[in-house]
Amino acid sequence: MNSPDDTPDSTTCPGCGAVLPGSQWPETPKYNASPECAEVAGELLGFEVQNAARLGYLHQLRIDAYGAQHVNPEGPRIGPVFALNGLYMFLERGSGNVDVRTAHSIMANSYDDWPRLVPPARAGELTAYDVLVAGGVDEVESTLLRWARQVWDAWPDNDRRTIRELTVKLVPERCFRTR
Description:
The structure is a single chain. The protein is mostly helical. It has a domain at 52-175. It has eight helices and two strands; from the N terminus they run ββαααααααα. The protein has helices at 35-50, 52-55, 59-69, 78-93, 97-110, 128-132, 137-154, 157-170; strands at residues 10-12, 19-21. Strands 1-2 form a two-stranded antiparallel ribbon. Strand 1 and strand 2 (19-21) form a beta hairpin. The longest helix has 18 residues, at 137-154. The protein is globular, with a radius of gyration of 16 Å. The mean pLDDT is 92.
């Protein structure tokens, strides 16, 4: 299991499946996430900020991995497209935070016929909780990279192909890097 003991006060996140102890965190209608999982995402952001010199380059990747793993089926179609675009740009094109945010801005201002992407039943085995409790900075970094890769790879081939095509069509070449 990816999370704390399943107790009567625990909940299962509908997006990632993590079983987490109950919390008083507010609902997060943007994501298909339990309040408990949203709290974990906030704690992970705090860890990232405390270790920004080392983890800052993964900021957008963390956001996009979480977003692609917690797609709200009733949410705007642009949400999963942007999350998957960020994963694609980082993992396959070598783009960083600024390039991905620039791509999102360009895409939002030049296109509006976003496809309806239906998330897989399970978008990877790792969750934000696994990243948070991985250990020190080195372990968090490597777990976050594995988590993002799992989330990207879990989406259907057709959806990933659609994201690749939309990105290449809409995003200038200058936003792509080589590693």
